[in-house]
Structure formats: C-alpha cells, structure tokens
Amino acid sequence: MVDSHRKLVYNNPIDKNWGVYMYLKSLELCGFKSFPEKIDLTFDSGITAIVGPNGSGKSNISDAIRWVLGEQSAKHLRGSKMEDVIFAGTQSKKPLGFAEVSMTIDNSDRKMNIEFNEVTITRRVFRSGESEYYINRAACRLKDIHELFMDTGLGRDGYSIIGQGQVDEIIHSKPEDRRSFFEEAAGISKYKYRKAEAERKLSQVQDNITRIDDIISELELQVGPLKTQSEKAKKYLDLREQLKKYEVNLYIGAIAKNKEELSELEKNRKIAEDSFDRLEKGVAEAEQKTAEYFAKIEEIEGETTRITETVSTLETQNNHYKNDILLIQNTIKHNKELIERLNREISEQDFLLNQNETAIAEKEKRIDYFVERRNELAGEIDALSGKMAEIEQELRQKTAALNEQKDGQLRLRQQLNDIDTSSSNGTVLLEQYRTRCSEIEQQQKEKEEPLKGLKAERRALAEQNEKLSEKLWAIEAELDSLKEQEAGQAKRAEQNVRALNEAKGALDAAVRRHDFLLDMERDMEGYQKSVKTVMGEYQKGRFGDTDIYGPVSSLLQTEPKYAVAVEQALGGAMQNIVVGREEDAKTVIQYLKQNKAGRVTFLPVSSIQPRSLRQNEAERFPGYIGIADSLVTYDKQFENVVKSLLGTTVVMDTIDHAIALNRRTGYKYRIVTLEGEILAAGGAISGGFSGRQTGILSRNAQINELKKQIVELKKKQGKLEGIFRQDEQAAQVLLEKKQALESGLTELRQEEIRQESRELHFASQIEQAETDRNNLISELTVQNSKIKLLQEQMESNSETVAKIKETLEEAEQNIHYAEIGIGEVSAQREQCNTALIELRLKLSDTEKDLSFEQERKKALQDSILSKEEQAKQKKLNIDELLENNDDLADDISFKEKQIEEITEEIEGKKAEIQRKHNDRKALSLTIQEIQKEAKDKQSELLLVQQEKSRLESKSEKLETENDSMIERLWEDYNLTYAAAQELKADIGKAAKPEIKRLKNEIAGLGSVNVDAIEEYKRVSERYEFLSTQKEDLVVSKDTLQKVITEMQQIMKDVFGEKFKEINENFVTIFKTLFGGGNAKIYLADENDLLESGVEIEVQPPGKKLQNLSLLSGGEKAFTAIALLFAIIKTRPTPFCIFDEIEAALDDVNVYKFAEYIKQYTKDTQFIVVTHRRGTMESADMLYGVTMQQKGISQLLKLKFEDIEKYGKE
C-alpha cells in the first residue's frame, strides 16, 4: 500500500548559517487542481526538487504558488477559466466547491514591509466565482498582496516563477513585452506604481480645479444681484418688525377683552350647568328607578312563567303516578285470578291430561285471539298517544302566547306613559322655537341694509380693477415681446459664447501642445544622452570656434504626412551631429572620451559626399511618392549631408506597392513607406508597432503646424469676441427697455395689490355679512323644521295614544279568551289521559293473558312428558305471584305518598303565582308615580338647557374670535399667544394709521426675497471657501507634477544602472554556460530609457552572430537560463520556482545547469519541478508526486534510488 505522506530526502548537506534572509517555509494546498485532499509541503534552504511522471500533477504545485501570489490569467495557469483551479471530481470522488492555497514566508529580515516574522498569504476561490484573500488570516485585497511583494521579484509579474513554456517566451516575446522582467529586476516597479498613482491623482486634481473654476464663475454671477436683494430684504424685515409691534399689541388687547367677557360668561354657564346637572341627575335617577322596577316586573313575570311550567310538570307527574297505581292494582287483581286458575288447574290436572290435544287446540285459538286483540289495543294507544302529544304541544303554545300577550300589554302601558311625558316636553319646546324664530327674523332685517352698501362699493372697485388689468395686460404683452427678443438674443449669444469658448479651448490646447513640444525640443527629449551632452556643452561655449550645427533632425523640415517615412529612412542618423570639418568632430570626440560621456556620430559638411540613384526606375511604379531627400527642406549648405542620408531611399505610399516595386526591380532599392515599413536592398523587411507617440522629426512638423493653427485660432477668437461685444450691446438695449417696462409694471402691480387688498377687505366683510345672514337663514330653517317636526310628532303622539288604548282593550280580551282556551285544552288532555290509561290497562291484561296462554300451551305440550314437574312448577308460580303481589302493594303505597306530596307542592306554587301577580300590580303603580315626577323635572331641564346653549353659543363666538386672532399671530408672525405677550407695549391711539402707513411702505418695496439674506451669506462664504480650495489644489498639482518628475528621473537612473549590470552578468554567465561565444542585451531605443523594448543578441561559440529564431531548442533554453541567472545575480530574489525549464537541454548541459544553480543557493532558495536526473541529484530535498487514482495527485514517500524509477514512469 502506498503511503500518501511526503518524506524529505536529503542529498546535500545544508548550510547551518542559512536562514538569515527571507525564504519560502511552507505551502498548503486544499482542493487545488488535482489535489482534493489537504497537503502540506515544507521547504528549507538550497534546492528542492519536485519529481514525478508526466501528467502526475507536479506542475500544479508551481501553479499553486503563482496563483496564491495573485495571478489573474487562467491561461497562465493552464486553464480556460479561473474555476478550473478547483478540483473537478473523478468517477470515485465528487467535485469540490472551492480551492485554497496558503503560502508561509519567513520575514525575519523584514524585506517585506510588514511587522511579522512570518507572513502567510492565503487565496480561496469558490465555484460561484467569488475570491477571498488573506494576509496572516486577516482578510485583505488583491492590491494589498501586490504591494506587499512589490520590488521583491516575487510578484505575479516577477521573474521568480518560470513555468512550462515561459523559457521560450523570454526568447520569442517582443522586446517591449520582454521589458517587464528587467523592470522587476531593476526594482523600479514601486516607482512606476507611485508615478501612476501620482498621475491619477494629478488628473483628479485637474478635474477638481476645472470644476471649482466653473462653480466660482457661477457664484461670481450670483453675488451682485444677491447683495441688492439682501439689502432690500433687510429693509422689508425692519418695516415688518415695526408692523408686527403694532398689530401684535392690537391683537393682544382684543384677546384680553374677549377673555374678560368669556370669564363672566363662564361663571353664568357654570351656574346653569350645575342646575342642568342637578336636574339631569334627578331625571336619570327617575329613569333608572323606572328601569329597575320594569326589570323587577320582568323578573316576576319570568318567575311566574317558570312556576306555571313547574306546576304543569308536577301535574303531569301526578297523572303518571295515578296511571302506574291503576296498572299495578290491575296486575295484582290479575295475579290473584291467575293463582285461582292455577289452583283449579292443579286440581283438574288429572282430567286435563286426558284432554291435552283438545286443550292445546283451544289454547292456540285463544292465543290468536289475544295477539289480534293486543295489536288492536296497541294501535288505539299509538293513535291516542299522538293525540295526547298534540294536545300537550297546543297547551304549551297557548301558555307561551298568553305570556307574550301579557308582556305586550305591559310594553303598551309603558309606551303610553312615555308618549304622555314627550307631549308635555314638546309643548314647552314649541314655544321656545317660535320665540327664537321671531328673534332671527328681526336680526335678518338689521343686517340687510349694510350688506347692500358693501356690495355697491365692491362693484365700483371691480370697475376700477378692470381698467387697471387692461393697462397691466398691455404692458405685459409688450414685456413678453421683449422677453422673446431677449430669449432669441440670449440663445444667439449663448451659441456665440459657446463658439468663443470652444475657440479659446482649442487655442489653449494648441498653445499648450505647442509649448509642450517646444519644451521637449529645447530639452532635446528623445535624444541620446551623449547628443544632449555635446549640444549642451556647445551652447555653453566649451568648444570655442568649433562649427557644430546640431543633430540632423533639427536641420530638416517636412510635411506631417511624410514625417514617419523620413524618420524611418534616417533611423539612428537623425541624432547624428552635423559639424563643419573633421577637426571639429575630432575636438568633440576627444571631450567625450575624456568625460566618458558616450558616443556620437558626426557628419562633417566638408567631407560628406552626396549619394543619389543613378537610374530611378521607381517613379513609373504605382504608389511612388519620391526620393526621400526631395520630401524635406533644409539649408543649402547641408545638401550633401541630406543627399548622403536620404538620396538613395525611395518613399512609397503602402507596403504592397513597395513589395511590388522590389520584386520588379530585383530588390535593389532601399524603400520606406508612409507608415514606416522599411524594405532593405536585398529583400529584408522591418516594421510593426512603435510605442512612441511622437518622433523627433514629427515633433518639429507638429510644432510648425501648431504655429499656423495658433495664428488661425487667434483670428477666429478675435472675430468671435467682436460678435460677443455686439451681443452684449444689443442685450443691454433690450435690458434697459425691459427694466423701464418692469418698473411701470411694478407700480401698476403695487396698485393692483392695493386694489386687491381693498377688494379682499370688502369681500371679507361681504362674505362675513352673507355668512351671518346665511347662518340666520339656516338657523331659521332649522327652527321652522324643528317646529314642524315637533307639531307632527305631537299629532302623531295623539294618534298613537288612541291606537295604543284600542290595542290594550284588544289585548285584555285576547288574554281572557286565551285563558279560556287553555282551560278547554287542559280538559281535553285529562279526558285523553283517562282513555289512554284504560287502553293501557286493557293492553296489559291482554299481554298477560297472551303470555299465560302461550305458557299454558307450552305447559300442556310438556305435560305429557312431566306431569309431576308441571304441578311443582305451578306451585312455584303461585308462590312467585303471591310474592309479586306483596311487592306491588308496597309500590302502590309509595306512589300514593308521592301523589300526596306533589299535590301539596302544586297548591304552594299556585299560591306563589298569586303573590307574584299582586307584587307586579304594586310595582306598576309605583312606576306611574315616578314617571310623573320625572316629567316635571324634564320640563325644568329644557328651560335650563336653553339658557346653557345661549351662553355656550356666545362663548364659542368669542373663543372663535380669539382663535382667529391667535392664528393670525402665528400665520403672520410665527408667534404663539404666550410669545406675543413678551412684545406687549403701549402703542397709543394712533396705532391703526401707523399700521396703514407701514403696509403701504411694504407694498412699495414690491416683491421681496427674504431668503436672499442667508443666500447672499451662504454664496459669499462658499465663494471664499472655493477660492481657498482652488489655491490648495494648485499647490497639490505643483507638488504632484514635481513627484512625477522625480519618479521619472529615479526610474531612469536606477533602470540604466541595473540594466548595465544585468548585461555584464549576462555576458559572463553566457560564456560560462556555453564555454565561450558572446551575448548582450540592449535597448531597442536607447533614447527612450523608460519605455524602450529589450533586444537580445547572442553568438554561440564557433558560430556567426545570428537571429535568435535560428538557434536550436537547447541553445534557446540555455540562453534564457543564462539571462535568468544574470537577473538573479543582479537582484537576487528570495526564492525561485522553475518548472521544467531545463527540459530542452541534453544531459551534459543539465548537469551544467544543476551545478550552476548551486552557486546561487546562498542568497536564493530554489524549488525545481523536474524529471531530469542531473537536476534531481543536485537537490537538497525531494518531493515525489504520483497519480495512483486517475485525476487525484498524491505526495509519496521516496528514497533517492526511486528517482530513476520515477523517470521511467
């Protein structure tokens, strides 16, 4: 059985002093790819090899390290989507829902900027797509992990993890893609990150400055008008405060006067209310007593009904006992007869035995007779029992009906008493209602004349308002016309302003771009450092009389459309410096050597010879543009230089035309296209994408083009500014007309407001008068309705009383007839009961005779067999009958005693019923007396209620006036009555004229924006605050620009130094690994230190310098390995993971690789996924990976001798 635990196999002794630098301590996988179960790998110094057969899952360990460090590309993890890293399941094991990898790193040297000696990075992904990241089990962001490993070489873009196929990528990738390795090695990633952050913040700051400028411009337009409105609002508030003083004190005085009157009314109302409460209490007590007595009557009637029912039940029970006694007596009599018959039969037994057959026949006839007789009697009993049940039901119904008629009689008497009381009260109310109607008619007459006068004044005022409205309409129509003109003018002005702003924006952009390119040109941005040095020193006068004209690019001009083609045609020669003579070049070269300032190519005018095409066949081909020297302009003295550089280069429009030309002419021309492709004489073609946005020559062309644009834009701006001034003048004329009309309109509106105020005053008075009149009419209508309703009710009461009395007489007759009917039904019940008893006695006799005859028949039939037994049995029967008769006699005595007791109880109940009738009669007399007393109190109560209503009505009117004034205090001045008391003052008798003056002065102010005071304050404060904010943002902008400049300089210095060191190490290591040869790395564009791609050039020993693509697979791999070692030597990374990077090497070179890797174990820890024996033998510890079960990887115990077996598998 294979043990799934891993075992470390040590091959080489471990350095005891190792562990002082950051290193990978352990790796934990759970559910990652082919590792469904949790596994732990621990690492130590030196080299750890992970071995196993192909497809066993050993590369998944390196993928796990890459993944936990933040890899976001599923392709780099050899998958199609990120969920592919989760264990997908097998036939025997279900898929998992998540994958998790944790990596623990020793951070004792604090190389990572975190205060922990050990750092555990954890990444978890769920099948739903959610991801989680942790640092030391604390949740974090992916960004935090990237920043933690920045410039350590361990990040996702670092050079510490080289997976399968990445070795080839180093060789075959584009120069610009290859650059990231060198940036990480140079340690400038953090500077690039900070520079990007600073640029992002700079963009935000610039956006904020633009936004604040827009807001400040808007606020500047608001401050002036708001100040005017604020001053007007302050004057309005001052006048309103004075008006408030007078009006508030008027209200306070009126309210106080009303309160005094209300206090007096309240006293009178309390007296009336006390009388009302006393009378109402008396009436309520009388009604309560009446209700209690009626309840007692109902209770008595209920008890009478229950007692009557009890008597009926007892009588029925008595009848049952009597019937039982008759039945028992009949049974005793029959038993005696039976005994005599038995005795006779015993004596006659002997005789009867001889006549058995005859006797049996006779018995059968008698049995048939008795059966028939029994059936007849049973039928008669059933019929009579049904009749008896009907009589009992009829008796119960008649008794219930009688009780109900008695209840109805009582209710009618109560209703009669209520109507009598109501009629008395109605007479009093009728007189009160008629008195109130007379008062209302008198008040109506008093209010009619003032109402007519008010309506006449209002009609006159309405005519004045109509004339005023016509004037207002005319001015408003003219003003609307002006507003339409103003809107059209404003729209045109807005369009012109927009066009002007666009022109200014375009001019500003062009000027900024021009200045920016000019600054770049002055700073010689894009030129080699050595060229900058020469030109800088020349400008300082260091070279004396030496003639230095400048770089070739500065001496030429061309159209923008030809700039790319000319730049590519010149190539590196653009930075060649043109001098007068060879001696001048010598002087400068001497200076460069002495100061180690780099190399420069010089072009002496005195010695450069022109070059040209002897025979130009290209001009007859389609797409031909011209010879390159003809597309540039220059000073005549530089003609030989220009022709030397460009005189033999043909310019074509497209690469297709260029290829066609070369094929037709035998590849003898050097051709450049407008897009920059170069076709060398002989057939080589170069081209593609260049990361630079602007070349040196293009920059000069752009500067010239921008100069022309700036001149044109300035002309356009001047023209638009003239139009803008004309718009302003036209707008001012319209504004003056509008203001004059608005002034007249304001005066008319103020007059309209005053008229409306007067009209509202009249309307309010008319409305109040009409309301009072309508209230009186409504009240009169109500009173008349009440009189009519009361009269109808009283008439209705008279009719109702007559009907009730008639109904009472009918009820008494019905009760008498009902009692007679109940007596008749009771007699029928007695007759029926007697007949039923007789029939039951006959049935009992018949059943006994039948039973006897049946027994006799059986006895006769059995007598033949046992005569003696029959005789004995008869004697026993006689004894039983005698004993039965004794028991029945006792039962008769008991039932007779029960009958006597029930009869006595019935007599007691009947006496109790009579007493209840007497009690009910006495209660009815008491109720009549109480109702008479209540009627007198009710009349007095109505008079008190009328006085109380009058007092309450007057109080309510005064309270309504007070509430109205208090509400006005709140609506007009936002004051409660208590708060208004604090403003109490002596305002004298001239308050009303002063109030009128203040209102007129307030009306003269026109429309007032009270909020303008706070708005002006708020806008002013905001204006000052935003101005300060803008100053702060400008300072921040300058600071960020300085930071960006510093970061660029630092990156240039650091990258340049480290790149040089990597190149030196690459040369050394390449020669060591290859045993000779030559190699170097260089920038594709040495002038673009921060963006240029990285080129690799190698020459294996014994071979010519050749293109990388022509190297063998092993040479490519060894070259890439040499470059990796050069980077690691320059900037050691704490640990490296190599996944089969030596797979393409032969055995000899594998051992070279293994020996060389050992040289770096002092500073770097190596985890190598391999299946090459040479690498395994150099490892300090080994892990083995196998796949015993398809799709599931395991770490196994290994012995070192198992390595060869693994290799074969």
Q: Short description, anyone?
A:
The protein has 1209 residues and is α/β, with parallel strands linked by helices. 68% of the residues lie in helices and 9% in strands. The two termini are 18 Å apart.
Topology:
Layout: E1 23-30, E2 39-42, E3 47-51, H1 59-68, E4 98-106, E5 118-126, E6 131-135, E7 138-140, H2 142-148, E8 161-162, H3 166-172, H4 175-186, H5 189-347, H6 349-354, H7 356-522, H8 529-539, E9 548-551, E10 557-558, H9 560-570, E11 577-579, H10 582-594, E12 602-604, E13 624-627, E14 632-633, H11 639-646, E15 649-652, H12 655-665, E16 670-673, E17 678-679, E18 685-686, H13 696-863, H14 867-973, H15 977-981, H16 991-1004, H17 1012-1074, E19 1078-1083, E20 1094-1099, H18 1113-1130, E21 1135-1139, H19 1147-1158, E22 1165-1169, H20 1173-1178, E23 1181-1189, E24 1192-1196, H21 1202-1208
Parallel strand pairs: 3-22, 3-23, 8-21, 11-12, 15-16, 21-22
Antiparallel strand pairs: 1-2, 1-4, 4-5, 5-6, 6-7, 9-11, 10-14, 13-15, 16-17, 17-18, 19-20, 23-24
Helix pairs in contact: 3-18, 4-17, 5-13, 5-14, 5-16, 5-17, 7-13, 7-14, 9-13, 17-18
